[in-house]
Write a structure and sequence with these properties.
The structure is a single chain. By secondary structure, the protein is an alpha/beta fold. Among the domains are: 149 residues, Rossmann fold, CATH 3.40.50; 98 residues, ANL, C-terminal domain (GMP Synthetase, Chain A, domain 3), CATH 3.30.300.30. The chain is built from 15 helices and 25 strands. The strands form five sheets. Strands 2-1-11-10-12-13-14-15 form an eight-stranded mixed β-sheet. An eight-stranded mixed β-sheet has the order 7-6-5-3-4-8-9-18, sandwiched between helices. The protein has a four-stranded antiparallel β-sheet with strand order 16-17-19-20. Strand 12, helix 10 and strand 13 form a beta-alpha-beta unit. Helix 1 packs antiparallel against helix 2 and helix 2 packs across helix 3. The longest helix has 17 residues.
Length: 504
């Protein structure tokens, strides 16, 4: 199955059902209207010389045109290459990496796009979503021209979607996803979540993340449901939009889910149509899951995936977990993937032992233009996630740490998540992150950064004393530093590389 054919199949079955909605402008398309827009986009790109396998960059805020640009690109067999607008200063480097022929952008990004076009000779055209600009074509005018689209190449194995890794610990890489395994994964995700045609999905996270693709876009389209995107989320406006749209599923990251919790507490309850939330982009603090369960009476379903996967390693069920001791678990693998825990010698480890999490089944076609990194990550036909974790006797995956984030202190390995979750369980702590700094005596010196909740005041010494009984490490070596805000990646993860650089 091809990604865009989920939309055309939906139009054949229920043409007038709502398909896509842009919350910020309150604009939407039915399935039939969305197919028409996709065909117009495909015709415009084809007229500009875009062919199968070419890259079409989308550098824009979340919106309806963003979704249509992706769909039209897939429709002609080209590759949608997505760059988050937060990377405006590095845009030239991203575009030089995947060498697009066309860049589609919002008007406020004109400066970075013009600079990139001058430096990247592969770019033949830039299309402004908001009308004509000097040297740019008007996307609305091209769409209005209703230019003929070419025949659908129909290649399920072709690359379709290029999104960059989050860059939590290093330089982002372009992960390339093919049509068929990604659609298969998305269908499995929809089945796990119990999605039906009457559901209304809502995703305020950046569309440049593959998390949006496999959680908020493809699974709803696969069952004929509707999906919403939002570009300018705040705690108050986000809650209002969930209410107005009758959202039944919220697809977000832990910081947004925490905001929904606090706004729901302030308003006396969650939006009434909401039946579950899905979290991605980073581990969910167990206390956040518990609060959704106990205060909102709703399940917070944790997902664990990667840009490289085009799906999830593990995903919980849309039901509350009654056992607090099990709140740290993600969930079992999905039917399209085989997940195993390997030791240093590639030996499969038994249930409960910690090792590297690996996946067989559908995953990325490779990193764009990075054959050596592709081989390193997929040698032996297995995706090596670089994450450490375990699978218990119930078959549930628990993520412990990125291998690259382990901190070795005086010969003892520290799992950052142990310290981070202990700190976030303390009153007034909104976020916590542990990193290791070079130390001639210890090997690495553990430094924990904590950001206060609104109105809270934090005392590092008191925090260290409070968590002493909750972790099995010698906290005499731990340095706790209070910061007003955490640096974040566009996918909602704490940017630990930035914390290390700042601390050093």
């Amino acid at each position: 199955m091809l990604m865009h054919r989920l939309l055309t199949l939906g139009a054949e079955r229920h043409a007038d059902r709502p398909a896509l909605h842009w919350v910020d402008r309150d604009r939407g398309l039915t399935y039939a209207q969305a197919v028409d827009a996709m065909e117009r986009m495909a015709g415009a790109l084809h007229d500009l010389g875009v062919a199968k396998g070419d890259r079409v960059s989308v550098f824009a805020h979340n919106g309806l045109d963003y979704l249509v640009a992706m769909l039209g690109t897939w429709r002609i067999g080209a590759i949608s290459a997505l760059v988050n607008v937060k990377f405006a200063d590095e845009l030239t480097d991203y575009l030089a990496d995947h060498t697009p022929s066309v860049v589609i952008y919002t008007h406020d990004m004109e400066g970075p796009v013009k600079a990139a076009m001058a430096a990247v000779p592969s770019i033949r055209h830039r299309l402004c979503m908001d009308g004509p600009q000097d040297g740019a074509l008007s996307l609305p005018d091209l769409m209005a021209a209703a230019l003929a689209a070419p025949p659908d190449p129909g290649d399920e194995g072709a690359m379709a979607h290029l999104s960059y890794t989050s860059g939590t610990t290093g330089k982002p890489k372009g992960a390339c996803l093919s049509h068929e395994p990604t659609v298969r994964a998305a269908r499995c995700i929809g089945e796990r979540l119990g999605l039906r045609a009457h559901d209304v999905s809502f995703g305020p996270s950046a569309l440049s993340s593959s998390y949006q693709l496999v959680a908020n876009i493809l699974p709803p389209l696969a069952v004929g449901a509707s999906l919403n995107v939002m570009g300018r989320w705040t705690r108050q406006t986000g809650y209002d939009a969930l209410l107005a749209r009758g959202a039944t599923m919220l697809v977000a990251n832990p910081p947004i889910l925490d905001e929904v919790l606090r706004e729901s507490q302030a308003r006396g309850g969650p939006p009434p149509a909401l039946r579950l939330s899905v979290s991605g982009g980073g581990p969910v603090p167990p206390q956040l899951k518990a609060a959704w369960r106990d205060e909102l009476r709703l399940p917070l379903v944790e997902s664990y995936g990667q840009s490289e996967l085009g799906g999830f390693v593990g995903l919980g069920y849309p039901e509350p977990e009654p056992d607090d001791a099990r709140l740290g678990r993600v969930g079992p693998p999905l039917p399209d993937k085989e997940v195993r825990i390997l030791g240093p010698d590639d030996r499969v480890l038994p249930a409960g032992e910690i090792g590297e999490i690996t996946v067989t089944g559908g995953f990325m076609a490779g990193y764009w233009n990075r054959p050596e990194k592709t081989h390193e990550a997929t040698r032996g036909g297995v995706l090596r996630t670089g994450d450490l974790g375990l699978i218990d006797s119930d078959g549930f995956v628990t993520l412990r740490s990125r291998r690259s984030e382990l901190v070795e202190v005086a010969g003892r390995l520290w799992y950052p998540r142990d310290v981070e979750e202990a700190l976030m369980a303390q009153p007034g702590v909104a976020l916590a992150a542990l990193v290791g700094l070079p130390d001639s005596g210890l090997g690495q010196r553990p430094v924990a950064f904590v950001a206060p909740a609104p109105g809270a005041s934090l005392d590092p010494a008191a925090l260290k004393h409070a968590i002493a009984g909750a972790v099995a490490y010698d906290l005499g070596h731990l340095d706790i530093r209070v910061v007003p805000d955490m640096p974040m990646t566009p996918t909602g993860k704490i940017a630990k590389a930035d914390l290390k650089a700042a601390a050093a």
